[in-house]
Give the backbone structure.
Amino acid sequence: MKPLHSSFKITVALLFSSQLSFAAADSSPNYLLYSLIGAGIIALIYAIISLADNMMQIEAKNLGADTSENDYSMFPSFSSLFKPKAGDHVDPKRLVALKQGHDIKLVGGADAGKTIANTAQHYAIKPTNFRGMAPIPKISAVAGDHVKAGDALMFDKSNPDVIYAAPVSGEVIEIKRGAKRAITEVIIKADSEVTFKENTVPNLESTSREDIVKFLLETGGWAHLNQRPFDVVPSQEVIPKNIFVSTFATGPNAHDLNTIVNGSEAAFQKGLDALSKLTEGQVYLGLDGRKGHSSHSAFSEATGVVANYFAGKHPAGNVGIQIHHTAPINSGDVVWTLRVEDVIILGRLFMTGAYDTRTKIALTGAEVTNGYVDTFLGASVGELIGPNLKNDHVRVISGDVLSGDPIPADGYLNQKTSQISVLAEGDNHELFGWLLPLKPRPSVSPTFPTYIMPSHEFEVDTNTHGEKRAFVVTGAYEKVLPMDIFPQHLMKAILANDFENMEGLGILELSEEDLALCEFICPSKSPLQSILRDGLDTMRDQM
Protein backbone atom coordinates (compact mmCIF):
# COMPACT_ATOMS: atom_id res chain seq x y z
CA MET A 1 0.00 0.00 0.00
CA LYS A 2 1.45 3.35 -1.07
CA PRO A 3 1.89 6.15 1.47
CA LEU A 4 -0.98 8.63 1.70
CA HIS A 5 1.00 11.54 0.33
CA SER A 6 2.11 9.50 -2.70
CA SER A 7 -1.49 8.53 -3.44
CA PHE A 8 -2.50 12.16 -3.16
CA LYS A 9 0.23 13.18 -5.65
CA ILE A 10 -0.82 10.47 -8.12
CA THR A 11 -4.49 11.49 -7.85
CA VAL A 12 -3.69 15.13 -8.48
CA ALA A 13 -1.44 14.20 -11.44
CA LEU A 14 -4.12 12.04 -13.03
CA LEU A 15 -6.75 14.74 -12.48
CA PHE A 16 -4.43 17.34 -13.98
CA SER A 17 -3.56 15.16 -17.01
CA SER A 18 -7.22 14.38 -17.61
CA GLN A 19 -8.08 18.04 -17.50
CA LEU A 20 -5.31 18.74 -20.02
CA SER A 21 -6.66 16.11 -22.37
CA PHE A 22 -10.14 17.63 -22.14
CA ALA A 23 -8.63 21.02 -22.68
CA ALA A 24 -6.86 19.78 -25.84
CA ALA A 25 -10.14 18.38 -27.21
CA ASP A 26 -12.05 21.52 -26.41
CA SER A 27 -10.55 24.94 -26.78
CA SER A 28 -13.07 26.54 -24.34
CA PRO A 29 -11.76 27.62 -20.86
CA ASN A 30 -11.77 24.80 -18.26
CA TYR A 31 -13.35 26.45 -15.22
CA LEU A 32 -13.19 23.27 -13.10
CA LEU A 33 -9.43 23.13 -13.47
CA TYR A 34 -9.03 26.79 -12.59
CA SER A 35 -11.31 26.38 -9.56
CA LEU A 36 -9.29 23.41 -8.27
CA ILE A 37 -6.03 25.28 -8.71
CA GLY A 38 -7.44 28.35 -6.96
CA ALA A 39 -8.81 26.27 -4.06
CA GLY A 40 -5.45 24.58 -3.68
CA ILE A 41 -3.61 27.88 -3.55
CA ILE A 42 -6.07 29.25 -0.94
CA ALA A 43 -5.70 26.08 1.17
CA LEU A 44 -1.91 26.34 1.00
CA ILE A 45 -1.95 29.99 2.06
CA TYR A 46 -4.37 29.21 4.92
CA ALA A 47 -2.14 26.35 6.12
CA ILE A 48 0.91 28.61 6.15
CA ILE A 49 -0.92 31.41 8.00
CA SER A 50 -2.41 28.96 10.53
CA LEU A 51 1.01 27.50 11.23
CA ALA A 52 2.45 30.98 11.72
CA ASP A 53 -0.47 31.92 13.97
CA ASN A 54 0.03 28.83 16.16
CA MET A 55 3.76 29.51 16.41
CA MET A 56 3.05 33.12 17.44
CA GLN A 57 0.69 32.03 20.25
CA ILE A 58 3.20 29.41 21.46
CA GLU A 59 5.97 32.02 21.51
CA ALA A 60 3.71 34.44 23.44
CA LYS A 61 3.17 31.80 26.13
CA ASN A 62 6.91 31.01 26.27
CA LEU A 63 7.62 34.71 26.81
CA GLY A 64 5.15 34.83 29.72
CA ALA A 65 2.50 36.97 28.06
CA ASP A 66 -0.96 37.02 29.65
CA THR A 67 -2.96 35.10 27.01
CA SER A 68 -6.09 35.13 29.18
CA GLU A 69 -6.48 38.90 28.78
CA ASN A 70 -5.16 39.27 25.19
CA ASP A 71 -5.44 37.31 21.98
CA TYR A 72 -1.95 37.01 20.47
CA SER A 73 -3.34 35.85 17.18
CA MET A 74 -3.81 36.95 13.58
CA PHE A 75 -7.40 35.77 14.00
CA PRO A 76 -8.59 37.39 17.23
CA SER A 77 -11.87 36.15 18.71
CA PHE A 78 -15.06 38.17 18.29
CA SER A 79 -15.24 38.79 22.05
CA SER A 80 -11.72 40.18 22.15
CA LEU A 81 -12.51 42.60 19.33
CA PHE A 82 -15.54 43.88 21.23
CA LYS A 83 -14.39 43.47 24.83
CA PRO A 84 -15.64 46.02 27.36
CA LYS A 85 -14.32 49.52 26.90
CA ALA A 86 -12.98 51.27 29.96
CA GLY A 87 -13.54 54.91 30.78
CA ASP A 88 -10.85 57.56 30.50
CA HIS A 89 -10.76 57.85 34.31
CA VAL A 90 -9.46 54.29 34.70
CA ASP A 91 -5.90 53.35 35.60
CA PRO A 92 -5.15 50.49 33.15
CA LYS A 93 -2.84 48.83 35.67
CA ARG A 94 -5.77 48.41 38.07
CA LEU A 95 -8.39 47.42 35.48
CA VAL A 96 -10.14 44.06 35.24
CA ALA A 97 -12.03 43.83 31.91
CA LEU A 98 -14.71 41.14 32.05
CA LYS A 99 -15.85 39.59 28.77
CA GLN A 100 -18.83 37.52 29.97
CA GLY A 101 -22.09 39.01 31.16
CA HIS A 102 -25.29 40.59 29.94
CA ASP A 103 -27.02 43.89 30.69
CA ILE A 104 -30.81 43.86 31.00
CA LYS A 105 -32.19 47.31 30.17
CA LEU A 106 -35.63 47.91 31.68
CA VAL A 107 -38.02 50.84 31.70
CA GLY A 108 -38.23 52.60 35.05
CA GLY A 109 -34.73 53.41 36.27
CA ALA A 110 -34.56 55.74 39.27
CA ASP A 111 -33.87 59.37 38.46
CA ALA A 112 -31.00 60.52 40.66
CA GLY A 113 -32.33 64.07 40.61
CA LYS A 114 -35.83 63.19 41.80
CA THR A 115 -36.50 62.92 45.54
CA ILE A 116 -39.74 61.25 46.66
CA ALA A 117 -41.25 62.03 50.06
CA ASN A 118 -40.83 59.40 52.77
CA THR A 119 -44.35 58.32 53.73
CA ALA A 120 -43.29 55.32 55.84
CA GLN A 121 -44.39 55.39 59.49
CA HIS A 122 -43.65 51.76 60.39
CA TYR A 123 -40.34 49.94 60.31
CA ALA A 124 -39.31 46.37 61.07
CA ILE A 125 -36.30 44.21 61.69
CA LYS A 126 -36.57 40.68 60.27
CA PRO A 127 -34.57 37.76 61.73
CA THR A 128 -34.82 36.01 58.37
CA ASN A 129 -32.50 38.66 56.88
CA PHE A 130 -29.62 37.39 59.02
CA ARG A 131 -28.50 33.93 57.91
CA GLY A 132 -27.20 31.69 60.65
CA MET A 133 -29.52 33.11 63.29
CA ALA A 134 -31.81 30.69 65.10
CA PRO A 135 -35.42 30.99 63.83
CA ILE A 136 -36.59 31.98 67.33
CA PRO A 137 -34.11 34.58 68.66
CA LYS A 138 -34.28 36.02 72.17
CA ILE A 139 -36.44 39.17 72.16
CA SER A 140 -35.12 42.07 74.23
CA ALA A 141 -38.17 44.31 73.82
CA VAL A 142 -41.86 43.42 73.97
CA ALA A 143 -44.94 45.00 72.42
CA GLY A 144 -45.67 48.34 74.08
CA ASP A 145 -42.02 49.20 74.84
CA HIS A 146 -40.61 52.47 73.60
CA VAL A 147 -37.13 52.15 72.09
CA LYS A 148 -34.51 54.47 70.71
CA ALA A 149 -32.64 53.83 67.46
CA GLY A 150 -29.79 51.53 68.47
CA ASP A 151 -31.56 49.87 71.41
CA ALA A 152 -31.34 46.08 71.36
CA LEU A 153 -34.45 44.38 69.95
CA MET A 154 -33.17 40.80 69.92
CA PHE A 155 -30.12 38.56 69.92
CA ASP A 156 -29.23 35.11 68.68
CA LYS A 157 -29.33 32.46 71.39
CA SER A 158 -26.32 30.71 69.85
CA ASN A 159 -24.28 33.93 69.93
CA PRO A 160 -25.79 36.33 72.50
CA ASP A 161 -22.94 38.82 72.14
CA VAL A 162 -24.34 40.04 68.81
CA ILE A 163 -27.32 42.35 69.25
CA TYR A 164 -29.78 43.36 66.54
CA ALA A 165 -30.79 46.96 67.09
CA ALA A 166 -33.85 49.09 66.37
CA PRO A 167 -33.46 51.05 63.10
CA VAL A 168 -35.66 53.91 64.40
CA SER A 169 -37.06 55.17 67.69
CA GLY A 170 -40.68 54.54 68.53
CA GLU A 171 -43.11 52.04 70.01
CA VAL A 172 -42.77 48.30 69.46
CA ILE A 173 -46.32 47.51 68.32
CA GLU A 174 -46.09 43.89 67.18
CA ILE A 175 -43.89 40.81 67.11
CA LYS A 176 -45.03 38.74 64.14
CA ARG A 177 -44.61 34.98 64.08
CA GLY A 178 -44.72 32.51 61.23
CA ALA A 179 -44.59 28.74 60.92
CA LYS A 180 -43.60 26.88 64.10
CA ARG A 181 -43.78 30.22 65.94
CA ALA A 182 -40.62 31.47 64.26
CA ILE A 183 -40.31 35.25 64.57
CA THR A 184 -40.63 36.93 61.19
CA GLU A 185 -40.80 40.65 62.08
CA VAL A 186 -40.44 43.00 65.03
CA ILE A 187 -42.46 46.09 64.02
CA ILE A 188 -41.93 49.64 65.32
CA LYS A 189 -44.18 52.64 64.84
CA ALA A 190 -41.66 55.43 64.40
CA ASP A 191 -41.59 58.70 66.32
CA SER A 192 -42.11 61.87 64.33
CA GLU A 193 -38.50 62.71 65.13
CA VAL A 194 -36.05 59.83 65.53
CA THR A 195 -33.88 59.81 68.66
CA PHE A 196 -30.74 57.77 69.10
CA LYS A 197 -29.16 55.76 71.88
CA GLU A 198 -25.90 57.37 72.98
CA ASN A 199 -22.72 55.28 72.83
CA THR A 200 -19.16 56.02 73.92
CA VAL A 201 -17.02 55.92 70.77
CA PRO A 202 -13.53 54.37 70.94
CA ASN A 203 -10.60 56.21 69.35
CA LEU A 204 -9.77 54.33 66.15
CA GLU A 205 -6.16 55.50 66.15
CA SER A 206 -5.33 54.19 69.60
CA THR A 207 -7.83 51.47 70.47
CA SER A 208 -7.29 47.73 69.96
CA ARG A 209 -9.11 45.47 67.55
CA GLU A 210 -10.81 43.76 70.49
CA ASP A 211 -12.29 47.06 71.68
CA ILE A 212 -13.59 47.88 68.19
CA VAL A 213 -15.20 44.44 67.96
CA LYS A 214 -16.81 44.90 71.37
CA PHE A 215 -18.14 48.32 70.35
CA LEU A 216 -19.72 46.94 67.17
CA LEU A 217 -21.25 44.00 69.05
CA GLU A 218 -22.87 46.23 71.66
CA THR A 219 -24.22 48.88 69.29
CA GLY A 220 -25.74 46.76 66.52
CA GLY A 221 -23.02 47.56 64.00
CA TRP A 222 -21.78 43.95 63.86
CA ALA A 223 -24.96 42.80 62.11
CA HIS A 224 -23.96 44.86 59.06
CA LEU A 225 -20.97 42.62 58.41
CA ASN A 226 -21.35 39.70 56.03
CA GLN A 227 -19.09 36.64 55.96
CA ARG A 228 -18.24 34.67 52.88
CA PRO A 229 -18.52 31.82 52.29
CA PHE A 230 -22.20 31.21 53.17
CA ASP A 231 -23.30 34.89 53.55
CA VAL A 232 -23.82 34.76 57.31
CA VAL A 233 -23.24 37.19 60.17
CA PRO A 234 -19.58 36.51 61.02
CA SER A 235 -18.23 35.09 64.23
CA GLN A 236 -16.37 37.62 66.34
CA GLU A 237 -13.72 34.97 66.99
CA VAL A 238 -12.57 34.81 63.35
CA ILE A 239 -10.37 37.45 61.70
CA PRO A 240 -11.17 37.86 58.00
CA LYS A 241 -8.47 37.36 55.41
CA ASN A 242 -9.69 40.43 53.48
CA ILE A 243 -12.70 42.77 53.34
CA PHE A 244 -14.45 43.71 50.08
CA VAL A 245 -16.76 46.58 49.16
CA SER A 246 -18.29 47.09 45.69
CA THR A 247 -19.01 50.74 44.90
CA PHE A 248 -21.28 50.22 41.90
CA ALA A 249 -24.21 48.03 40.92
CA THR A 250 -24.95 46.66 37.45
CA GLY A 251 -28.26 44.82 37.90
CA PRO A 252 -31.47 45.81 36.08
CA ASN A 253 -32.42 49.40 37.01
CA ALA A 254 -29.67 49.27 39.63
CA HIS A 255 -29.53 51.99 42.28
CA ASP A 256 -26.76 54.55 41.82
CA LEU A 257 -24.27 54.27 44.67
CA ASN A 258 -22.74 57.62 43.69
CA THR A 259 -26.11 59.14 44.62
CA ILE A 260 -26.29 57.20 47.87
CA VAL A 261 -22.83 58.22 49.09
CA ASN A 262 -23.36 61.87 48.14
CA GLY A 263 -23.38 63.87 51.38
CA SER A 264 -21.96 60.98 53.41
CA GLU A 265 -18.38 61.06 52.14
CA ALA A 266 -16.80 61.54 55.59
CA ALA A 267 -18.85 58.73 57.11
CA PHE A 268 -17.84 56.37 54.28
CA GLN A 269 -14.14 57.07 54.83
CA LYS A 270 -14.55 56.65 58.61
CA GLY A 271 -16.19 53.30 58.03
CA LEU A 272 -13.28 52.18 55.85
CA ASP A 273 -10.84 53.29 58.57
CA ALA A 274 -12.66 51.11 61.08
CA LEU A 275 -12.76 48.11 58.75
CA SER A 276 -9.02 48.33 58.12
CA LYS A 277 -8.51 47.70 61.86
CA LEU A 278 -10.54 44.48 61.70
CA THR A 279 -8.54 42.52 59.13
CA GLU A 280 -4.95 41.37 58.85
CA GLY A 281 -5.24 41.68 55.07
CA GLN A 282 -6.58 44.44 52.85
CA VAL A 283 -9.79 46.37 52.41
CA TYR A 284 -10.56 46.14 48.68
CA LEU A 285 -12.77 48.61 46.83
CA GLY A 286 -14.33 47.70 43.48
CA LEU A 287 -14.62 50.86 41.35
CA ASP A 288 -16.73 51.42 38.25
CA GLY A 289 -14.46 51.24 35.22
CA ARG A 290 -17.13 51.12 32.52
CA LYS A 291 -17.03 53.59 29.67
CA GLY A 292 -19.54 56.36 30.21
CA HIS A 293 -19.57 55.82 33.99
CA SER A 294 -17.52 57.27 36.82
CA SER A 295 -16.85 56.71 40.50
CA HIS A 296 -17.67 59.31 43.15
CA SER A 297 -14.61 60.99 44.66
CA ALA A 298 -15.50 59.33 47.98
CA PHE A 299 -14.72 56.03 46.25
CA SER A 300 -11.87 56.91 43.89
CA GLU A 301 -10.00 59.01 46.50
CA ALA A 302 -10.58 56.72 49.49
CA THR A 303 -7.49 56.13 51.60
CA GLY A 304 -6.21 53.02 53.36
CA VAL A 305 -7.69 50.68 50.75
CA VAL A 306 -6.69 48.81 47.60
CA ALA A 307 -8.89 49.98 44.71
CA ASN A 308 -9.44 48.12 41.44
CA TYR A 309 -11.55 49.07 38.44
CA PHE A 310 -13.96 46.63 36.83
CA ALA A 311 -15.38 47.05 33.34
CA GLY A 312 -17.98 44.84 31.73
CA LYS A 313 -21.62 43.93 31.70
CA HIS A 314 -23.66 42.65 34.62
CA PRO A 315 -22.61 41.04 37.00
CA ALA A 316 -19.41 43.14 36.98
CA GLY A 317 -20.71 45.10 39.98
CA ASN A 318 -21.28 42.02 42.15
CA VAL A 319 -18.80 41.80 45.00
CA GLY A 320 -18.46 38.03 44.46
CA ILE A 321 -17.23 38.57 40.90
CA GLN A 322 -14.76 41.17 42.14
CA ILE A 323 -13.46 38.83 44.85
CA HIS A 324 -12.91 36.11 42.25
CA HIS A 325 -10.73 38.40 40.11
CA THR A 326 -8.91 40.08 43.01
CA ALA A 327 -8.20 37.61 45.82
CA PRO A 328 -10.24 34.40 45.37
CA ILE A 329 -11.64 32.52 48.35
CA ASN A 330 -9.75 29.28 48.91
CA SER A 331 -10.75 26.40 51.13
CA GLY A 332 -10.57 27.52 54.76
CA ASP A 333 -10.58 31.25 53.91
CA VAL A 334 -13.01 33.70 55.49
CA VAL A 335 -13.62 37.15 54.01
CA TRP A 336 -16.12 39.88 54.80
CA THR A 337 -18.24 41.90 52.39
CA LEU A 338 -20.19 45.09 53.00
CA ARG A 339 -22.44 47.33 50.97
CA VAL A 340 -21.59 51.01 50.63
CA GLU A 341 -24.65 51.73 52.78
CA ASP A 342 -23.32 49.50 55.58
CA VAL A 343 -19.93 51.20 55.51
CA ILE A 344 -21.67 54.59 55.86
CA ILE A 345 -23.75 53.37 58.83
CA LEU A 346 -20.60 52.08 60.56
CA GLY A 347 -18.83 55.37 59.79
CA ARG A 348 -21.62 57.38 61.44
CA LEU A 349 -21.43 55.06 64.42
CA PHE A 350 -17.74 55.83 64.89
CA MET A 351 -18.21 59.56 64.21
CA THR A 352 -21.21 60.31 66.43
CA GLY A 353 -21.85 57.20 68.52
CA ALA A 354 -25.36 56.97 67.03
CA TYR A 355 -26.73 53.91 65.25
CA ASP A 356 -28.11 55.93 62.35
CA THR A 357 -29.55 53.77 59.55
CA ARG A 358 -30.69 56.59 57.27
CA THR A 359 -30.37 55.57 53.64
CA LYS A 360 -31.68 56.27 50.15
CA ILE A 361 -34.00 53.73 48.54
CA ALA A 362 -34.43 53.67 44.76
CA LEU A 363 -37.98 53.16 43.50
CA THR A 364 -37.71 51.43 40.12
CA GLY A 365 -39.94 49.75 37.58
CA ALA A 366 -42.57 50.80 35.06
CA GLU A 367 -45.43 50.56 37.59
CA VAL A 368 -44.19 53.11 40.13
CA THR A 369 -43.00 56.71 40.21
CA ASN A 370 -39.23 56.51 39.87
CA GLY A 371 -36.82 58.34 42.17
CA TYR A 372 -35.06 58.11 45.55
CA VAL A 373 -36.62 58.11 49.01
CA ASP A 374 -34.69 59.23 52.10
CA THR A 375 -35.76 56.78 54.78
CA PHE A 376 -34.43 54.24 57.32
CA LEU A 377 -33.68 50.55 57.02
CA GLY A 378 -36.66 48.21 57.26
CA ALA A 379 -39.28 50.70 56.05
CA SER A 380 -42.82 49.56 55.27
CA VAL A 381 -42.96 48.85 51.55
CA GLY A 382 -46.67 49.56 51.24
CA GLU A 383 -46.33 52.95 52.91
CA LEU A 384 -43.32 53.87 50.76
CA ILE A 385 -44.78 53.02 47.37
CA GLY A 386 -48.53 53.36 48.05
CA PRO A 387 -48.87 56.99 46.91
CA ASN A 388 -46.52 56.30 43.97
CA LEU A 389 -48.10 53.20 42.40
CA LYS A 390 -49.48 53.46 38.87
CA ASN A 391 -51.26 50.09 38.99
CA ASP A 392 -52.43 47.81 41.80
CA HIS A 393 -51.94 44.51 39.95
CA VAL A 394 -48.21 44.37 40.53
CA ARG A 395 -45.45 42.38 42.15
CA VAL A 396 -43.22 44.26 44.57
CA ILE A 397 -39.63 43.07 44.91
CA SER A 398 -37.14 44.05 47.59
CA GLY A 399 -34.03 44.36 45.45
CA ASP A 400 -33.60 44.00 41.69
CA VAL A 401 -35.70 41.76 39.47
CA LEU A 402 -32.96 39.12 39.16
CA SER A 403 -32.01 38.46 42.78
CA GLY A 404 -34.56 40.34 44.92
CA ASP A 405 -37.28 38.84 47.12
CA PRO A 406 -41.01 39.30 46.48
CA ILE A 407 -42.67 41.22 49.33
CA PRO A 408 -46.39 41.39 50.17
CA ALA A 409 -48.21 44.71 50.25
CA ASP A 410 -47.91 44.85 54.04
CA GLY A 411 -44.26 43.73 54.06
CA TYR A 412 -41.05 45.49 55.02
CA LEU A 413 -37.76 46.14 53.26
CA ASN A 414 -34.98 43.61 53.66
CA GLN A 415 -31.95 44.64 55.71
CA LYS A 416 -29.63 44.49 52.68
CA THR A 417 -31.87 46.34 50.23
CA SER A 418 -31.48 49.75 48.62
CA GLN A 419 -33.89 49.19 45.76
CA ILE A 420 -37.59 48.43 45.30
CA SER A 421 -38.65 47.02 41.93
CA VAL A 422 -42.31 47.08 40.91
CA LEU A 423 -43.43 44.97 37.92
CA ALA A 424 -46.78 44.13 36.40
CA GLU A 425 -47.97 40.63 37.28
CA GLY A 426 -47.37 38.25 34.39
CA ASP A 427 -50.56 36.19 34.60
CA ASN A 428 -51.81 37.08 31.13
CA HIS A 429 -50.65 34.22 28.91
CA GLU A 430 -49.75 34.77 25.27
CA LEU A 431 -51.07 32.28 22.72
CA PHE A 432 -48.02 30.49 21.28
CA GLY A 433 -45.90 33.12 22.99
CA TRP A 434 -42.88 30.82 22.93
CA LEU A 435 -43.26 30.40 19.16
CA LEU A 436 -44.38 33.89 18.15
CA PRO A 437 -42.84 36.39 20.60
CA LEU A 438 -44.88 39.34 19.41
CA LYS A 439 -43.96 41.54 22.37
CA PRO A 440 -40.31 42.62 22.73
CA ARG A 441 -38.63 40.93 25.67
CA PRO A 442 -35.06 40.86 27.00
CA SER A 443 -33.08 37.85 25.85
CA VAL A 444 -29.51 36.78 25.14
CA SER A 445 -30.67 34.87 22.08
CA PRO A 446 -29.80 36.41 18.68
CA THR A 447 -33.05 35.00 17.28
CA PHE A 448 -34.94 37.90 18.87
CA PRO A 449 -34.88 41.08 16.73
CA THR A 450 -34.14 43.23 19.78
CA TYR A 451 -30.77 41.46 20.09
CA ILE A 452 -29.36 44.01 17.64
CA MET A 453 -30.64 46.90 19.81
CA PRO A 454 -28.53 46.64 23.01
CA SER A 455 -29.73 50.02 24.31
CA HIS A 456 -33.44 49.23 24.03
CA GLU A 457 -35.35 49.44 27.33
CA PHE A 458 -37.98 46.77 27.84
CA GLU A 459 -41.27 47.03 29.68
CA VAL A 460 -41.61 43.60 31.27
CA ASP A 461 -43.87 41.63 33.58
CA THR A 462 -43.23 38.59 35.77
CA ASN A 463 -44.18 35.96 33.17
CA THR A 464 -41.43 33.32 32.86
CA HIS A 465 -42.53 32.39 29.30
CA GLY A 466 -42.30 28.67 29.92
CA GLU A 467 -42.33 26.00 32.57
CA LYS A 468 -39.58 24.00 34.26
CA ARG A 469 -37.93 21.53 31.88
CA ALA A 470 -35.26 18.85 31.87
CA PHE A 471 -31.93 20.05 33.28
CA VAL A 472 -29.65 19.62 30.27
CA VAL A 473 -26.06 20.72 29.61
CA THR A 474 -26.08 23.67 27.21
CA GLY A 475 -22.96 25.71 28.02
CA ALA A 476 -25.14 28.82 28.27
CA TYR A 477 -24.23 29.70 31.87
CA GLU A 478 -20.54 30.12 31.13
CA LYS A 479 -21.33 32.83 28.57
CA VAL A 480 -22.73 35.19 31.21
CA LEU A 481 -20.79 34.22 34.36
CA PRO A 482 -17.31 35.83 34.44
CA MET A 483 -15.85 33.28 36.85
CA ASP A 484 -13.52 30.36 36.23
CA ILE A 485 -16.00 27.71 37.35
CA PHE A 486 -18.45 25.29 35.74
CA PRO A 487 -21.85 26.35 37.12
CA GLN A 488 -23.90 23.60 35.46
CA HIS A 489 -21.68 20.85 36.84
CA LEU A 490 -21.83 22.53 40.24
CA MET A 491 -25.63 22.57 40.18
CA LYS A 492 -25.70 18.85 39.40
CA ALA A 493 -23.24 18.17 42.24
CA ILE A 494 -25.52 20.07 44.65
CA LEU A 495 -28.58 18.13 43.51
CA ALA A 496 -26.64 14.90 44.04
CA ASN A 497 -25.33 16.01 47.49
CA ASP A 498 -21.79 15.39 46.28
CA PHE A 499 -19.91 17.43 48.91
CA GLU A 500 -16.44 16.85 47.50
CA ASN A 501 -17.39 18.02 44.01
CA MET A 502 -19.43 20.91 45.39
CA GLU A 503 -16.35 22.34 47.07
CA GLY A 504 -14.05 21.47 44.19
CA LEU A 505 -16.32 23.19 41.67
CA GLY A 506 -16.27 26.47 43.59
CA ILE A 507 -19.46 26.64 45.66
CA LEU A 508 -17.66 28.54 48.44
CA GLU A 509 -17.03 31.47 46.08
CA LEU A 510 -20.67 31.95 45.12
CA SER A 511 -23.72 33.75 46.41
CA GLU A 512 -27.21 33.75 44.91
CA GLU A 513 -26.76 37.08 43.14
CA ASP A 514 -23.79 35.69 41.21
CA LEU A 515 -25.99 33.04 39.58
CA ALA A 516 -29.06 35.24 39.07
CA LEU A 517 -28.19 35.98 35.45
CA CYS A 518 -27.59 32.28 34.78
CA GLU A 519 -31.09 31.61 36.13
CA PHE A 520 -32.51 34.29 33.85
CA ILE A 521 -31.07 32.70 30.68
CA CYS A 522 -31.53 29.08 31.83
CA PRO A 523 -33.21 27.06 29.02
CA SER A 524 -34.42 24.58 31.67
CA LYS A 525 -36.06 27.26 33.85
CA SER A 526 -34.24 25.79 36.85
CA PRO A 527 -34.26 27.73 40.17
CA LEU A 528 -30.48 28.02 40.32
CA GLN A 529 -30.38 30.52 43.18
CA SER A 530 -32.52 28.28 45.36
CA ILE A 531 -30.41 25.25 44.46
CA LEU A 532 -27.22 27.15 45.34
CA ARG A 533 -28.61 28.27 48.72
CA ASP A 534 -29.56 24.68 49.57
CA GLY A 535 -26.02 23.61 48.71
CA LEU A 536 -24.42 26.37 50.78
CA ASP A 537 -26.61 25.59 53.79
CA THR A 538 -25.76 21.91 53.48
CA MET A 539 -22.03 22.68 53.27
CA ARG A 540 -22.24 24.96 56.31
CA ASP A 541 -23.97 22.24 58.32
CA GLN A 542 -21.18 19.82 57.44
CA MET A 543 -18.31 22.16 58.35
User: Anything to note?
Assistant: The chain has 14 helices and 19 strands. Confidence is low (pLDDT under 50) at residues 1-12, 18-25.
